[in-house]
Amino acid sequence: MPEPRLRDFKRIVFFTGAGMSAESGVPTYRGAGGIWKEYDYRRYACQDAFNRDPEAVWEFHNYRRGLVAACSPNRGHHIVARAGQGSARVTVVTQNIDGLHALAGSREILELHGNLWRVRCDTCNIKQQDAHVVREELQCDRCGGWWRPDIVWFGDYLHEPILDAAQAAILGCDLFVSIGTSAVVYPAAYLPEYARKAGAVRVEINPDETPASDLYDVHLRGPATEMLARLAGDDPELLA
Ligand code: APR
């Protein structure tokens, strides 16, 4: 199949993982320099750890906030955002919690795994959205309990309405571009199947092969910024 060009499609879904933000300096989870090689998610990124030792979880969480706060959207994030400002309808379905798609100007974003900058109190059923900064106030001002990072941790269920919206967007798309995901975490890893059902052209952007590679028509084996520039072709609107 010839390499597609974004301008030829009307309904595009970008499905992004940690590799989308790698060139912004945000560490990925797996592979070289992956976070889970340094930190055991069972101690820092799951509900049991939070119930057992909320201070350790917050220390890790604020460490990550500090890292990501120093990172900006890369050229790939900007191409994705600009694709959504043209005639095509664009939905970003992201596993990333870093907030860089929104910072780049993407509007229709479905965050499958939550958001690094948002916290919630499950006792008071309230949420707070922070700027891209480390959080000082760790106790809910209403009940005094610990604010919980509003992230889908291992063992958590995804937020059904967001997953349903992602599936609906993919079932209606004519181009599905997966960028920088190792395709090993479910149910997100199942989403390319919906693109196959939709009959969409399916592109995988990843320097490496993944367990989902067979589901794609086109494989762009390189970094997100360069491969997205190739999909943008010579369209000055997208490459500004
Ligand atoms: N451009 C594109 N892809 C890249 C780049 C890059 N510059 N650098 C690395 N990659 C690819 C890697 O080859 C790998 O396949 O990005 C992928 C990153 O994989 P993971 O670190 O596993 O990230 P992801 O797939 O998003 O993880 C899914 O797992 O830990 C949970 O909730 C967490 O959302 C996360 C989920």
Brief summary:
By secondary structure, the protein is an alpha/beta fold. It has 11 helices and 9 strands.
Q: Your description of this structure?
A:
There is one protein chain. The chain is α/β, with parallel strands linked by helices. It has two domains: 1-25 and 73-113 and 157-240, TPP-binding domain (Rossmann fold); 27-70 and 118-151, SIR2/SIRT2 'Small Domain' (2-Layer Sandwich). The protein is built from eleven helices and nine strands. The strands form two sheets. The protein has a six-stranded parallel sheet, sandwiched between helices. A three-stranded antiparallel sheet has the order 5-4-6, with helices on one face. Strand 4 and strand 5 (126-129) form a beta hairpin. Helix 6 packs parallel to helix 10 and helix 8 (160-171) packs parallel to helix 9 (191-198). The longest helix is centred in the N-terminal third of the chain and has 16 residues, at 54-69. It is elongated, with a radius of gyration of 18 Å.
